[in-house]
Request: fold
Amino acid sequence: MRVEIIVDGHDEEGNSSTASLTSLYRWLAQDPEVAQQAEISLDSGPVGAGDMGGAFEVINAVLTHGIALSSLAVACATWRSSRPTAPAVRIEIDGVTVTVEDGSPEAVRRIVDALGEPLAEPRTPVSGAGTDAQQ
Reply:
């Protein structure tokens, strides 16, 4: 399962989304659960005409199995909670995006429910899970 993780905006300390994304990448790479269950990499977005490119815009994760999604969600939520004011973190799979708000068991369950199953029919936003359906 291929997952994209995006960090939006600046945090309260003025760190750019690129600096926050790099920090989250390091956090995920050092998390034993995530490192064991996923291959993660930093990726720059598509480079358009006239762009210099090179800035990281997304973390790509390839998960070995569906259960790894919950570990990834918990790790992202833990990273956010370790910061005084963390920027929004979005997890996207197959065009469906969920915003990580907290690491409570209920929130992680809602994230996995929203993203974890293959699409049999169009998904609808999950109330309270910070879901932004983008199809």
Remarks:
- Confidence is low (pLDDT under 50) at residues 118-129.
- The longest strand covers residues 56-63.
- DSSP finds four helices and six strands in the chain.
- Helices lie at 17-30, 32-37, 68-81, 105-115.
